[in-house]
Amino acid sequence: MTSFAPSSALSPAHGAQHPELAPLTNIDVERIRNDFPVLHQTVNGHPLVYLDSGATSQNPISVMEAEQEYYEQRNAAVHRGAHTLAVEATEGFEAAREKVAAFVGAQTDEIVWTSNATEGINLLAYSFSNASLGLGGPAARRFSLGAGDEIVVTEMEHHANLIPWQQLALRTGATLRFIPVLDDGTLDLLAAADVVGPHTRLLAFTHGSNVTGTINPVAELVALARRVGALVVLDACQTVPHLPVDVKALDVDFAVFSGHKMLGPTGIGALYGKAELLADMPPFLTGGSMITTVDMTQAEFLAPPQRFEAGTQRISQAIALAAAVDYLSETGMDRVHAWEAQLGQRLVAGLAEIPGVRLLGPGLGVERLGLAAVDVAGVHAHDVGQFLDDAGIAVRVGHHCAQPLHRRLGVTASTRASTYLYNTTDEVDLFLATLAEVAPFFGVKQ
């Protein structure tokens, strides 16, 4: 199988590169698998083959131990007490922010903790909505939207990067437009140049499609936005876990990602925002821990990121996410990306050999994420998934929270296999061999 090195357009994450280390091999991956207890079990009488990391990744022992150690030794409210445990909890919480920020090339005060990427996008949408109501004063007017303004997304967006902008448009009177997708599952960049126009105030798009595996040309899209003075929001859920990402080098204004897709726990994510933008944004959630002065009629708010972190925070999850970042950094994100690119090409090549199986997205030789979504002619995706599960192979079935994209590609649902640093070539080959048995089992002639 062809091995694809990381693209030079994918800027290296700070502290995540190990050029002195050799590329990952199956032997290395087998060692990595020893750090993931969940992978060493049988499902329906077969060894588990976990190919659903695009939805949720598994956790190494070090991540689980980091969260457990916090609860055993340092459990306390952060930013609220002067006693020893509170100080230690706060130090661990903020050290985690520093580590995660460095992982994506951001400043520490440019990372806002969220429950997940979906919350991060909603935080932005509601902050802009509040600015549109006049909250935040003159500084926040740059985020105000109204009739005549346009929000641009793409036809390949996850619902999390579509519905919040739909709702923002409804609340403000702005118009939502989208960049269409071509038949091969990539963006129509010629159309994009027309869609992003003088009325565009915001461009929001995914870095990597969770359906087609397409890695979008961030530089080209950012250039379109900069040409008209629009803000850029990047959904990096499928890229921060899998390839080197430097938000400063990409020059996006905001970016979101989720911990549970990058070896971390559920319930934690991050919103990156340029410091000067966060400083001008009005808050979305309000309450304790995000204020300076309060009286019975008004309040003044802290500087970012605390301005956007009302209430008791996700302390143990943030600390565990930092442990996940350590694991990925020590492995080397360039190595992770190169290995998954190899697995992705192996998937694409193998799928091309199975009659009646249609790959959604670019074909062999095009750089892609290490995932593949397919339609098996004559067999519903849920039946495909059940057949694979009976063989111990875990995949995702359905529309993957991307109904418009599936509709554009002419299907209602698909079966997706998504790899990570703990998957081997043998597992990919077993998936392909088992998928080839689906149509014969259901009596469908291809």
Describe this structure in words.
There is one protein chain. The protein is an alpha/beta fold and 446 residues long. It is globular. Mean pLDDT is 95; it is low at 1-17. The protein has 15 helices and 17 strands.
Task: Compute the CA-based radius of gyration.
Answer: 22 Å
- Determine the fraction of residues in helical runs and give it as a percent range: 25-40%
Looking at the overall shape, the CATH architecture of the largest domain is 3-Layer(aba) Sandwich
Helix count?
A: 15
Question: Low-confidence stretches at least 5 residues in length (pLDDT < 50)?
Answer: 1-17
CATH superfamily heading of the largest domain: Type I PLP-dependent aspartate aminotransferase-like (Major domain)
CATH topology of the largest domain: Aspartate Aminotransferase, domain 2
> In whole angstroms, how far apart are the ends?
26 Å
Number of domains: 2
Mean pLDDT: 95
**What sort of overall outline do the alpha carbons produce when their principal axes are compared?**
globular
- Report the β-strand fraction as a percent range: 15-25%
Structural class: alpha/beta
Number of strands: 17
For the record, what CATH class of the largest domain applies?
Alpha Beta
The description of the largest β-sheet is:
7 strands, mixed
Q: What topology, given as strand order, has the largest sheet?
A: 4-10-9-8-7-5-6
